[in-house]
Structure formats: C-alpha cells, structure tokens
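Thread: quick sanity check before group meeting

JM: Hey all, I'm pulling together slides for Thursday and realized we never actually wrote out the predicted structure for the chain we discussed last week. Dropping the sequence here so it's in one place. If anyone has concerns about the input, flag it before I start.
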Amino acid sequence: MPEPLWLATLVRRALYRYRGAKYAVILVFVPEGDTNQMSDEKHFTFYNTGTALAIGLIVSSLIFSWAYKDSKKGDESITVTGSAKKRIKSDLVVWSAGVSTQSPQIADAYKQLSDSIPRIKKYLVDKGIPESQLTVSAITTTTLKRNDDQGQPTSETIGYSLSQSVSVSSNDVDKIAQVSREATELINQGILLESSAPQFYYTKLGDLKIEMLGEAAKDAKTRADKIAESTNSSIGSIRSAKMGVMQITAPESTEVSDYGVNDTASIEKDVTAVVNVSFAVN
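JM (edit): ok, ran it. Output follows.
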C-alpha cells in the first residue's frame, strides 16, 4: 500500500478508537495488504511500521491531551460575593421613663414615688399616647448603708432608694420619638424624670431577609458573568452558596461586624445582606 494511504489508515483508526474511549486511548495498527507481499518486502514494511509507530505516538498524545482537558473542564469554578442594601423605616418603638426617690423612711420614699408615676402617665396620655400602650414596672427598692472612713459600706441603714418606670411600646415611632424628646418638661413640674433613649425595631425582618438574600444572589451572578466574559467563558450551575450575616446599621454607616450589627438607635436603617456563591465555569 502506498505510504500516504498507509498513514491515513492508521490515523483514521486511532481517531475511531478515541470516539469510543474518552479517557483511555489504545491504538492498534494492523497493516492492510497481502501478507506474502509484505514478507517479500521486509525492508519496506519495517520502514512503514516505524513511521506508523511515530505517527501513532503523536496522535495518541494529542487524543489523550484532548481527553484530559475535557475531563478537567467541569472542575473549574469561580467564587464571588454578592450584596444587596435597602433603606427601611422602623415600625416599632420601645421607650421607658421613670423616677427614683430617696428618703430615710421607706414610707416617705414610697409616697414620693406614688405621686410621680400617675403624673407621668397623665402627661403621656395627654400627648396622645393610648394608655393601653403604657406599662408600669414594679418598684425597685435599695437599702442605703452608711460608709466608713475608707468608703466601705457598714451595716448601719441610713435610708431607702425606690425607683419605678413607665414604658411605652408603640408602632407610632415618630410620635414616641418626639414625646421622648419633650418629656423633660416634667422636670419643670418637679418630677426628676430619668428618660432612656428610645429603641427602634423592624418587625418584618424575617421576610425582608429572604427577599434581600435573593437580591444578593442575583448580584453575585452578575459579578460572576462579568468575570467569565473577560475570559471568554460562561457561568454554569451553582456549586455552593454561603449566607453572610445581616448588617442593620444607621443610614450611611460603614460599621460591620462578624456577628452582624443591629442598630436600634435610628428610626431609619440600612439593611445589608451578603452571600458567597461558587459557580461552575463552562
């Protein structure tokens, strides 16, 4: 057989076997033609066989390389971080204000306290806060001891300190925020009011969390697509996804924490969700 046809036959058989075995290639070269003629032309046959083996090794190497590359292609992946931010307004406020009194006699301290609490309640109701939203705490009593010359308390009782508070829980966050700022007016009425800072909460955070994680995942997909496009690749299915902690911060704040931030001092807040997603690369 002429040499070009001989080599073409070997390559054709090698490729045929590659199609049937993706990860292992076995090349079997069977020369075609009359056996007796090959016996008579040993030198020519030996030359053709050596050439065929060389070509076969080259073709085998190429096929194995293609198969290896194809098998590894599905192992490639890319991991990106996606985020989503939303401005929300608190829908629940909790605020408390109270008084404390001191007197050598516990009865006198109690009388002062019992006069102040009703006046605080009346002030809040007059400001438009329903009485159903008010809660009066139990009275806290502390026994006061005399200190010695070293500043250490002794066993001698010199008086009593009583305290009590009124707390407000309301969905009218704007009104309560305003009242908490104006409540110092009670000082002019002789009531030494102790007002705490209002605490603002968002009660629908669970539903918002699901929504924002979806937005963060979309952002991660967009980022991954942009990176893949720059390398002439495309993004496949999700390999893994990890949710980060929610950050609830004051507006425009850059505060973050590994355990999450939960701001309760601001009526309006920024909620940020983060996810880390690993995509297959095609």
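AS: nice. The chain has a mean pLDDT of 82. The first strand starts at residue 77 and ends at 89.
JM: adding both to the slides.
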